[in-house]
Amino acid sequence: MKKFLSLFLILGMMFSLVGCGSEDEANEKEKTEQKEEKKEDLSFGSTVEFEGCEITFNEPAEFIVFDNEFSDLHGSEIVKVPVTVKNVSDEVSGINMFYVKVYGSQGVQVDDVSTYYMEDDMLFTAGTDSLQPGAQINTFFHFVYDGNGEYIIKLEAFDGATNIKLPINK
Questions:
Q1: Mean pLDDT within 79-99
Q2: Is the torsion defined by CA of 71, 77, 156, 94 positive or negative?
Q3: CB burial class (10 A; 0-12, 13-18, 19+) of residue 156?
Q4: At 138, phi and psi to the nearest 5?
């Protein structure tokens, strides 16, 4: 009889805990979906706050030819997008290059070419700890062109990800 009573109490506690946990998960899922919906509309001209900075991807995008005979990408077309970055935090800040990814028109991540354009690429001119509070810089963001279509710039940090969808057409 004691075993039956113990089993009954354990099952009762398990069901009560499961019932409590599912409501929180549903609320979190709704909040996440609402955040994702808000981020879907970001494109050229939109300003997004990321890592203490406001980033605006401006138009028009330019096309340049990648000129480095020692690279497999030599001769490839590169998209050069004008970007404005402003530090809106109270601390020295900037964009961490490891938190930025680009997905091309085919939905596949394209090669990172920022290191070849260090003198005017956002990931270096506005890189980690590059901007004093209130500082603003007009710079560029470079990525490999893989055809006309929608490119996704994914800004991903510990507190979530933001996608900026840029229609790129030659």
A1: 92
A2: positive
A3: middle
A4: -100, 125
